[in-house]
Amino acid sequence: MDRNTLPFLRVAARNRLRERKLRRVLGPDLGRPVSWQATDNPLVGETAAIFESSHDVHKWSQYFEAYDAVLAPLRDRPIRMLEIGVFRGGSLEMWRKYLHSDSLIVGVDIDPGCATFDDPDRNIYVRIGPQQDTAFLRGVIDEFGPFDVILDDGSHVNSHIIDSFTFLFPNALADSGAYMVEDIHANYWWTHADQPATFVDFTTSLIDAMHAHYFSTVGEQLFHAGDTKRETAIQVPFATTIVGKIEFYDSIAVIHRRNRDLPRSIFRA
Ligand SMILES: C[S@@+](CC[C@H](N)C(=O)[O-])C[C@H]1O[C@@H](n2cnc3c(N)ncnc32)[C@H](O)[C@@H]1O
Fold first, then answer.
1. Is residue 148 in contact with ligand 1, taking CB distance under 6 Å?
2. What is the β-pairing status of strands 252-257 and 243-249?
3. Ligand 1 centroid to residue 156 C-alpha, Å
4. 265 C-alpha to center of ligand 1: Å?
5. What's the pTM?
6. pLDDT in tens, 116-126
7. To which CATH superfamily is domain 38-257 assigned?
8. Which residues are annotated as catalytic?
9. Ligand 1 atom at minimal distance to the Cα of residue 130
10. What InterPro entries does the entry give (predicted)?
11. pLDDT tens digits, one per residue of 189-213
12. In the chain, what are the domain boundaries?
């Protein structure tokens, strides 16, 4: 048996189970099989326009909607952006063209060849190391963080995405910042699925974490300001206090760090 056959068979079996469960959970209307036609619609949006005039960028067309939604409100001020995965440097150039001219753009990549894209005169920095190495990431945070936007376009290996997220989201993302993870399709491909839990599975735990203050409480009055039964403090995972919003597009997710000034139940981090 070829060295690659076993992981391929394992992931194929997992995906078959996933598909079966999906159809069951979706029910007869949402789950009925249909033929989905490929279309080649023109790209829309500002990041798409920059992409089309750029070279050496590696992006799927559906990502531009997410980029525009996250980045457009941040364009009128200097921000700090971290992208995991530099490749040929094209996406760093794209962000340079799109973001405020004083924004700081940091790329990290495991490939030492990417160091050639380090360009401090233009506020573009590249650091070389593995995205799953928290000591390396700590150095990047100490040198450049905290970041307003983090984009994971690195190895796309399930465990790497989760390791980077669990370290960077709490330690490197600014208040109200956005953490994007792209190429989520690779979660389902044997080439990248090094463990059964995908990043998508992980985000269901993040959704649970957003609601962890309801695990040990029952009743609205516990959350009413002024009510004698009101809970004033409760033990929750740190994630409960900082995950504000989770958005999914096809193959790209955006997890927003909570704006501390927005009310959320009765609790404040
Ligand atoms: C899809 S490419 C990045 C494309 C680039 N962001 C763009 O849009 O043009 C993925 C990059 O991740 C890098 N990479 C792979 N494994 C990595 C790891 N464990 N840590 C950091 N970077 C990694 C690869 O060297 C490659 O340059």
1. no
2. antiparallel
3. 8
4. 39
5. 0.95
6. 999 999 999 99
7. Vaccinia Virus protein VP39 (3.40.50.150)
8. 156
9. 20
10. SAM-dependent_MTases_sf (IPR029063)
11. 999 999 989 999 999 999 999 999 9
12. 38-257
